[in-house]
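Morning F.,

Quick status update on the modeling queue. The single chain you submitted on Monday has been processed. Sequence for confirmation:
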Amino acid sequence: MLSFKHLLESFEKEFQIEIQNIQTTAPVNLYEPIAYSLEVGGKRIRPVLLLHAASLFTKYPETFFPAAAAIELFHNFTLLHDDIMDHADIRRGVPAVYVKYGANSAILSGDAMSIMSFRLLSQCEPAKLPSILTLFSITAIEVCEGQQYDMEFEEKDQVTIAEYLEMIRLKTAALIACSLKTGALLAGADDENCRLLYEFGLLIGIAFQLQDDWLDVYGNECTFGKKIGGDICENKKTCLLISAMEMCNERDRSSLLEWMGKSDFDEKEKIEAIRTIYTESGASAATKTLMKHYHDQAIDKLDQLTIADADKTELRKFASQLLSRVK
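Structure tokens below.
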């Protein structure tokens, strides 16, 4: 079993070569935005989880680099399109791809990235390829379903916490779960351990997105890498907003609805006003409590893995760090 740090360094070294190859591919206007989106970094959580899951069952997880790169490419493809749909100008502290290169280029480059991810996956061992491609294809559709629900929520007057959790299970958690199960499948893990790693990924992925939504309101823009308050300005139906609507008093509920109904507003004023309601209503604390609930469920799945306890240390640490992360 290899540490996250070691796997991240190994992956980053190989992935930089992939990025350089992309940079020198023609037509430049298709591939340059791809390289730009990948160069600015990111946490590389999904490829490292894939490699780490593989390392639990084999001594040579680095042989599965193409699959890890495929996961990272697909994840970044979704970000290119998400930023356009969410009107998000900043990604990882720099202008979003559509801001720098235009929406048409961002859409087409994103499409190319999704296809490139399948091409990389096709390099997997032939005997394991059917199960890997089936899992990845199901996950890719789930991510699109999650994004569709997210957009539909913008037009709905009411969204329940259950509906919100299902949306983030599809949009965010499914790819994290897929990463872990893919690594386990490639390394020859048994069905039960593959299942448990997938369920761990789903649960910790939900906790990850809850923390991401919380940071969008309470984070530091310099460390978070995105504009703070974007979800508030876009009236996104996050756990914070849904909880606040359920928990706040009539005066604050009226204030929330008034702010959400405005098309012309001062962004700083709106963010500060709604952040205050989230805090005072208990919505912020409720979101943190729900995050801890999913974290604890994920640890329960981790405990059931039939591997040495020492080999669970990195995943346990990863789960714990999610609750305190600032970016």
